[in-house]
Specification:
single chain, 242 residues, mainly alpha, Serine Threonine Protein Phosphatase 5, Tetratricopeptide repeat, 11 helices, elongated, THA8-like, Pentacotripeptide-repeat region of PRORP domain-containing protein, TPR-like_helical_dom_sf, RNA binding
Length: 242
C-alpha cells in the first residue's frame, strides 16, 4: 500500500509538473505573439494626407494628352472617359493638367467642368489657373477666365482667402487692371477686404507706378481701418497652401 501511495504521489507530481510546463509554454507563446504583433506595427506606413489621383483620373489625363493633336480623337476621350468621371476626379484631372502646364487641355477641361450642374467657381482654383496661364504667356486666356468669373458672380461665395490669392496672382502678372476689377467684384459679393488685400494691391500699384488708382485704394484702406492703416508698412504674406 505504501508503495502504491508513493507511486500515486509521484504520478500526481509528474502530472502537475507537466501541467505547469504546458501553461508556461502557452504563456511564452502568447508573449512571443504579442511581441511579434508590436514589431509589425512599427513597420506600418503613415496615412497619406489629401486625395491622390484615382486610376480613372490618371488614365483620363494620359488619354487626353495622347489625343490632344487630333480633334475627333480628343472628343471621343471626352465622351468616353472625362464626362463619365465623378466631380472630384474631374477637378483632379484639371489640377493635374495645370501642374503639367498642359494649358490648352486644361482650358478645355475647365469649359466642360463649368457646364456641370454642381459647378460653382472656386477662387483658389481660378487663381491657380491664372498663374499657370500667365506664366506660360497666355495672358488673353487668363483675362477670359476672369471675364467668365465676373459673369458668374451670382455663384460666388465671400471667400477672402480665395480673393486674396487671385489678387496676388494678377498682381504677380502685372495685370493691375484685372486685379482692381476683382477687388471691386470682391466687395460686390459682400466679401470685405482685409489688411492683406490692401497690402497686395498697394504694393503692386506702387511697383507699377499706378499713382492715380493707388491713391484711391489707399483712401479705401483708411476708410476701412482709419488710424490702424499702418499695416501698409508691415510685411504681410499670403498663407501657404498645402
Amino acid at each position: 500500500m505504501t508503495g502504491m501511495y508513493c507511486i500515486g504521489n509521484f504520478t500526481g507530481l509528474v502530472n502537475l509538473k507537466q501541467m505547469n510546463s504546458s501553461e508556461h509554454h502557452q504563456k511564452s507563446r502568447r508573449t512571443m505573439s504579442m511581441i511579434t504583433m508590436r514589431d509589425r506595427s512599427k513597420n506600418r506606413k503613415p496615412l497619406q494626407k489629401g486625395r491622390n489621383l484615382s486610376i480613372e483620373a490618371i488614365q483620363t489625363v494620359q488619354a487626353l494628352k495622347r489625343a490632344s493633336r487630333d480633334a475627333s480623337s480628343l472628343e471621343q476621350v471626352y465622351d468616353n472617359k472625362f464626362r463619365r468621371l465623378l466631380k472630384f476626379d474631374m477637378i483632379a484631372v484639371l489640377r493635374e493638367l495645370l501642374r503639367q502646364n498642359q494649358c490648352l487641355l486644361a482650358l478645355k477641361v475647365f469649359e466642360d467642368v463649368r457646364k456641370e450642374e454642381w459647378y460653382k467657381p472656386k477662387l483658389l482654383l481660378i487663381a491657380e489657373m491664372v498663374t499657370v496661364l500667365g506664366s506660360n504667356g497666355l495672358l488673353q486666356e487668363a483675362e477670359l477666365v476672369i471675364a467668365q468669373l465676373k459673369a458668374e458672380s451670382c455663384l460666388l461665395n465671400p471667400d477672402l482667402e480665395g480673393f486674396n490669392a487671385l489678387l496676388q496672382s494678377l498682381m504677380n502678372l502685372n495685370l493691375t487692371g484685372l486685379a482692381i476689377e476683382c477687388f471691386y467684384l470682391m466687395k460686390s459679393v459682400s466679401c470685405d477686404p482685409d489688411r492683406l488685400s490692401f497690402k497686395i494691391l498697394i504694393d503692386g500699384l506702387e511697383a507699377n507706378k499706378e499713382i492715380d488708382i493707388l491713391a484711391v485704394i489707399q483712401q479705401d484702406a483708411h476708410r476701412y481701418y482709419g488710424q490702424y492703416a499702418d499695416f501698409l508698412e508691415m510685411d504681410l504674406t499670403l498663407p501657404k497652401c498645402n
